[in-house]
Amino acid sequence: MWSRLAAAVLRSHRPLLFATAGTRSSAGPQKGAMQTAVVRCVPGEPKLTVSFCLDGSHKHMLRDQDEPVGKVLARIGNNLLKNQGKGKKKKKKCDEPSDGAQSSATEVRLLLDETPVEESVLNREAWRDGAVLCVGGVRYAVLRNAPTFTSAELPRSLMAGFPVCPKLQLEFGNMDDCEFTWLKETSAGSGETWQEVGSGRVFVPSNEDIGSRLQLRCSPKDREKSGLVKELQSEGAIEAGPGTCTFDTRHLFTGTQTQWPELRVVSYNILADVYAQTELSKTVLYPYCAPYALELDYRINLIRKELAGYNADLICLQEVDKGVFEDCLIPAMDAFGFEGVFRIKEKQHEGLATFYRRSRFRLLSSHDVVLSEALCSDPLHSDLLHNLSSRPDLKEKILKRSTALQVSVLQDLVQPERSLCVANTHLYWHPTGGNTRLVQMGVALTHLGHVIGSVSPGAALVFCGDFNSTPHSGVFELLTHSSIAQSHPDWLSSGPDHHCPMDLASPFPPLLSACGTPPYTNYVGGFKGCLDYVYIQPDHMEVAQVIPLPSHEEVTTYEALPSVSHPSDHIALVCDLLWSPQNKL
Q1: Whole-angstrom distance, CA of residue 334 vs CA of residue 176
Q2: Which of 182, 197, 341, 509 is most exposed by smallest CB count within 10 Å?
């Protein structure tokens, strides 16, 4: 198959003649059969491409759009002669009989309505749908800018019971119109055959499929227009899954999507691969976790199944590797009906991802910031920056942090007059960093107050993330009480040298922790505690349901997290929110 399928060939009123000889490949086009020549010709690009099969080999020609088509046809003829010359040598060696039809001169023409196209016609005009390229007795139907999968790839790790989501890039087509056929490898007598087992973009293998490889046939389409089928085969066979996972019971509460005025929200630190693969993680942080269960190929299977089973409308993820977002999450979440945005941390390889169900929301605008940069450059934070100046060591420490705040303003598609301001962050982690987190949260709240006050008035705030802050922390008090006093012990969290007491106030009335304060959302060998939250404004939204966290027995089945049944050291928070009546806004 061709990675980028493109164009076919054109011809003059006077047909070009090429002497041909040689054997005919059994894999090549046969005389009298209508083959396909695919042309990619995009306005504004200097080149076009023509792709077709000639004498059993795939040809991919890159030509100028402003070039006369006759030159392309001549090039095809030259290639044909070269191939036939090789065929002659092979025939002599094999003492094969010659093909009389191919030993004679072969016409190469480009026809439109069965009339030859003049050689002087430029490529960009000559190659069009309905044209026919004739090479001897072989006719090629020209497809111009046909729907094409420019890349397609199956995951390396396949497990029974876990969704398989191919990575696909489509050009000139509509993914919703495309057709997908899944087949598994079976043994029949002495040979191997393929048995159809499913359709659709996502396939979930069963235990009966363990040990078989997968094949996927992708048919690109745009309404009635079709392109060439792409076939993929998995590298390895389907393996057995881990059995019961920590999220399986939770999925019993989220078996269907919500209906307006409800919406389901997930906040989840999925454990970045860049951290999971360190020697510290393997030997100190998670020594109890089986090494294979820390591998990304294994964990991403669990993450995809967990997220799919929540049937959420809004998902905020932390510790998302850039490669994981692009190669693993986007293909899966797109297939599940989500659009996604990503914000990488400065000087890091991981960041924040927000996904929203495209049938429920539309992205209006993004207002992401790096908190330390905003503190220095935005006049909104001038008072806070001035207060920090009395403690230059603390100020320098805070300004070194690359913590980001991802802010997405979403429009509700059911009631377009309503909008959400979705904030997602992962605050500084260090045990002595309570004062740093307070400053970071002060910057975040001020920025969010500006976005809602000036950019999207009336938007309802949903603030998710791993705040690395327990319910006894200053950050929790600031969010739930709208202010924090100078006497709070977090101002002394990193010692008297960094003591910089100040009054911080939130621009919002007290926010509500929608999932409450569970005993823990992070459970590792040496620590357990509640660090993750979903905050809402009680006058804009209400809590309809909190999905129960896994039981302590489930969490500790393999001692702690992560484990073979849980992909992260954190537990996802999942809750159903309810829009408040308009008269409360």
Answers
A1: 11
A2: 509
Q: Which residues contact 493 (CB under 8 A, 6 or more apart)?
A: 432, 433, 434, 435
Is the Cβ–Cβ distance between 215 and 226 less than 8 Å? no
Backbone angles phi, psi at 197, to 5 degrees: -130, -10
Q: How far apart are CA 435 and CA 439, in angstroms?
A: 6
Q: Which of 54-58, 361-365, 484-488 has the lowest mean pLDDT?
A: 54-58
**Distance from C-alpha of 169 to C-alpha of 220, rounded to nearest angstrom:** 10
Please identify which residue in the block is written with the tokens 């009336």.
458
List Cβ neighbours of 296 (8 Å cut-off, separation of 6 or more): 273, 276, 277, 324, 328
Give the pLDDT band of residue 12 (cuts 50, 70, 90): very low
Instruction: Report how far apart, in Å, the C-alpha atoms of 333 and of each of 166, 325, 570 are.
Output: 11, 10, 20
CA neighbor of 209 nearest in space, from 236, 181, 245? 236
Q: What pLDDT, in 10s, does the model give residues 192-229?
A: 799 999 999 999 999 999 999 999 999 999 998 999 99
Task: Supply the pTM of this predicted model.
Answer: 0.87
The per-residue pLDDT for 135 is 85
Is residue 466 part of the annotated active site? The answer reads: yes
What's the DSSP call for residue 459?
A: P
> How many residues belong to the chain?
585
Work out the pLDDT band at 187, boundaries 50, 70, 90: confident
* pLDDT score, position 93: 45
Q: Which residues of 104-166 form beta strands (DSSP E)?
A: 105-112, 115-116, 131-135, 138-144, 148-153
First CA to last CA distance, the chain: 57
Kindly calculate the radius of gyration of the chain based on its CA atoms and give it in whole angstroms. Answer: 30
Which residues does residue 408 pair with via DSSP β-bridges, in sequence order? 366, 422
Q: Report pLDDT digits (tens) over 144-155.
A: 999 999 999 999
On whether the CB atoms of residues 2 and 60 are closer than 8 A, the answer is: yes
| Contact call for residues 354 and 316 (beta carbons, < 8 A) | yes
What would the 3-class secondary structure string for 356-419 be? EECCCEEEEEECCEEHHHHHHHCHHHHHHHHHHCCCHHHHHHHHCCCCEEEEEEEEECCCCCCE
Q: What is the dihedral of CA 298, 299, 305, 309, to 10 degrees?
A: 160
